[in-house]
Amino acid sequence: MAQNQTSIVTARQPILNHKMEVFGYEFFYRSSTKDSTSNIRHTAESDTSTIINLFSNFNLDRLLAGKKASLNCVLEHDESISSFEMLNKENVILEVQEPSDPKNKNIIENIYQKMLILKDKGFTIAGSEIVFDEKYKSWFDVVNMVKFKSINYDLQNNLSLEKLSKYVKLCKTNNKIIVMEMVESQNQFDLYKKFYFDYYQGFFFSKPINLSSKITNPALEVMIKLINLVNNDADFTELEYVIKRDPTISFKLLRYLNAVGVGEGEKINNLKRALTILGSKKLLKWVTILFSSIKAKSGLDEVAKTALIRARLMELLAEEIGEKDLDGYFITGLFSLLDAMLDVDLDVSLNSIDISQEIKDSILKNKGKFAKMLNLVKYIEEGEWIDIFASLYFFNIKNEVLSEKYLEAIEWTEKLDFLPDEEENQLLT
């Protein structure tokens, strides 16, 4: 039976190049039924129309931040092409799913014909490793991109390496873009880079690389001092003095506040006015946002975005279920990736900041009132669908509410307008 428009849960995962720069985002989406353990494959065109309708309520350009959107799509249904024709072909990669009956030659041919139509319309078409199967040779000929899965290869096994090398060479010879999915550690990333994949997908970028026992970045030390001053109710004169000592911090704080309209139409041009409008309670939230933007290592932009999406989503969902301590949820989400942002052990980095023990316990020990919501946002990132639906049941949150709040959190994060260091320095001079 087709799902209605309120049955979709969506999630976003970055696709990065070897320099840890974002090429695009894959948007996953699943429908749930009364039986949350039932088949959660992309089974119907209704899922497609639902995600497109959902996107239409948001600024897709802002959700993508100028990057590509990769969407899973089912093409074996008669109505399946029309939904995709509504999308901007310049922004979208269509990742064709294997048929429900992978041996049915008629279905394979039917999907192939639709792939041709979409490619002729200018869409970029992606396929999985199934395109290397002889039955799917026609698919290989039409796809622009092939997506590999790391779990299909054992880098300690020579036969597995030979198989991977063979497929990579075949793709390169035929000018296919190649992507390695499910890369979950820096070690995996380093190994697969040797095969010269064009792009890599997974949350390897959010893992710390070389853990240190102390914070060595001067800008981060200033930000931590600022957070601790706010937490200890320092007066605005002292806060203004610390902020003014670093022009980058002053610039970013004013830019962020104006970007999201904190002044309600008023352009905020000086720190004293910013501090007055915010007040000490709201200032803590904005200082933590500012903290997340300090670049401690290559690729941190996406770590910071992930942390901010976690923070904003936790805040929005907490508000949805009637929780009062919204700042606590926000800060828990933001600081849950503190080790990756600082390359410092998580308990060391958390202990350097004056935050409540309840927040620390939720992050470090998976206990406390913020822990279950933090787990939910992690499940979304990882596409753990059964755990997502179980969490939604626990919180009594509807699927469509989660999707809307998730996209709202992404849109809010992209509004903060992360700039490369060189552009930011240009604006500051």
Compact overview of the structure:
The protein is an alpha/beta fold. The protein is built from 20 helices and eight strands.
Describe the model.
It is a single chain. The protein has 20 helices and eight strands. The protein is α/β, with parallel strands linked by helices. It folds into two domains: 8-205, TIM Barrel (Alpha-Beta Barrel); 218-428, Hypothetical protein af1432 (Orthogonal Bundle), CATH 1.10.3210. The protein has an eight-stranded mixed barrel, surrounded by five helices. It starts with 7 loop residues before the first strand and ends with a helix. The model is unreliable at 1-6, 33-44 and 419-429 (pLDDT under 50).
CATH class of the largest domain: Mainly Alpha
The tally of beta strands, per DSSP, is 8
Tally of helical segments:
20
Low-confidence stretches: 1-6, 33-44, 419-429
Mean pLDDT: 80
Examine the secondary-structure arrangement and name the CATH architecture of the largest domain: Orthogonal Bundle
Shape: elongated
Largest sheet: 8 strands, mixed, barrel
Rg value: 23 Å
CATH topology of the largest domain: Hypothetical protein af1432
Order of helices and strands: EEHHEHEHEHEHEHEHHHHHHHHHHHHH
Superfamily (CATH H level) name of the largest domain = Hypothetical protein af1432
Measured distance between first and last alpha carbons: 60 Å
Spatially, the strands of the biggest sheet line up as 1-2-3-4-5-6-7-8
Derived structural class: alpha/beta
Strand content: 5-15%
Assign a percent range to the helix content: 40-55%
Total number of distinct structural domains: 2
